[in-house]
Design brief:
Blueprint: E1 4-15, E2 18-29, E3 33-37, H1 44-51, E4 59-64, E5 67-68, H2 74-80, E6 82-84, H3 97-104, H4 113-118, H5 121-141, H6 156-168, E7 174-178, H7 186-201, E8 205-209, H8 213-219, E9 222-227, E10 230-235, H9 237-242, H10 244-251
Parallel strand pairs: 3-8, 3-9, 6-7, 7-8
Antiparallel strand pairs: 1-2, 1-4, 4-5, 9-10
Helix pairs in contact: 3-5, 3-6, 5-6
Pfam family, one: BCA_ABC_TP_C
GO molecular function: ATP binding; ATP hydrolysis activity; L-isoleucine transmembrane transporter activity; L-phenylalanine transmembrane transporter activity; L-valine transmembrane transporter activity
Protein name: ABC transporter ATP-binding protein
Length: 256
């Protein structure tokens, strides 16, 4: 029997008169790459924002690793073990790659403002540990050679990898990636695919939004499809590919 990591039921999110999510339910198991696809405006990023605490759902149930995260704030969600990247890259542009990853460790650090001022031995030891972990993660995602480069000077592909390294610095159980392959060339996309498999094999469950349907079909263990804020299909890639509702959502009723 699958070991459930995340379960949401009956999620609704409204913006004024717009019903962005309607009765959405998902179950994600530990150790899988779970894909979320759908046409533009289907509600994919809205669901990501609900799962990571940026949006407060109006109704529903949200359980993660034994915790009730319904209507919780982002820092509570991160502390519980959900980390994310964004569709539009959000790095600290003037910080180095190493510093960006070190910032991601703050949720797991213990030293507060007083420790930062006094620079006591415990705080100094923790800072060394944080830096060592940041180096380890840059090596893990394949960009340790640019550790001292400012984030704004990195190539697009390296910036995407840096975002992933910073998210991994929070020690997530679930890594949620919002269109990580957007703007990448075929070589970069293939390398990203390998990295996501590596992350999953390392014990971190992956939740992925991506417009590259070919990539998703070849990478994900299971896929859910949203259309107009509703889940219209869920299953292994081959089942989803053949689902008439999915064909209609992407190609129109004449192809269903």
């Amino acid at each position: 029997m699958a070991d459930v990591l995340l379960k949401i039921e009956g999620i609704h999110k409204r913006f004024g008169g717009l019903h962005a999510l309607s009765d959405v339910g998902l179950t994600i198991n530990k150790g899988e790459i779970y894909g979320l696809i759908g046409p533009n405006g289907a509600g994919k990023t809205t669901l990501f924002n609900v799962l990571t605490g940026l949006y407060v759902p109006d109704e529903g149930r949200f359980e993660f690793a034994g915790h009730n995260l319904f209507q919780q704030k982002p820092h509570v969600v991160v502390a519980a073990g959900i980390a994310r990247t964004f569709q539009n890259i959000r790095l600290f542009a003037e910080m180095t790659a190493l510093e960006n990853v070190m910032v991601g460790r703050h949720i797991r650090s213990k030293a507060g403002a007083l420790g930062a001022v006094l620079r006591d031995p415990g705080t100094m030891a923790e800072e060394r540990s944080i830096e060592a972990k940041a180096w380890e993660l840059l090596e893990y995602v394949g960009i340790a050679d640019v550790a001292h480069e400012r984030a704004r000077n990195l190539s697009y592909g390296h910036q995407r990898r840096l975002e992933i390294a910073r998210a991994l610095a929070t020690e997530p159980k679930l890594l949620a990636l919002d269109e990580p392959a957007a703007g990448m060339n075929p070589r970069e996309t293939e390398e990203l695919k390998q990295l996501m498999s590596k992350i999953r094999d390392g014990g971190v469950t992956v939740l992925l939004i991506e417009h590259d349907v070919k990539l998703m079909m070849g990478l994900c263990d299971r896929i859910a499809v949203l259309d107009y804020g509703k889940k219209i299909a869920e299953g292994v890639p081959e089942e989803v590919r053949k689902n008439p509702k999915v064909i209609e959502a992407y190609l129109g009723a004449a192809h269903a």
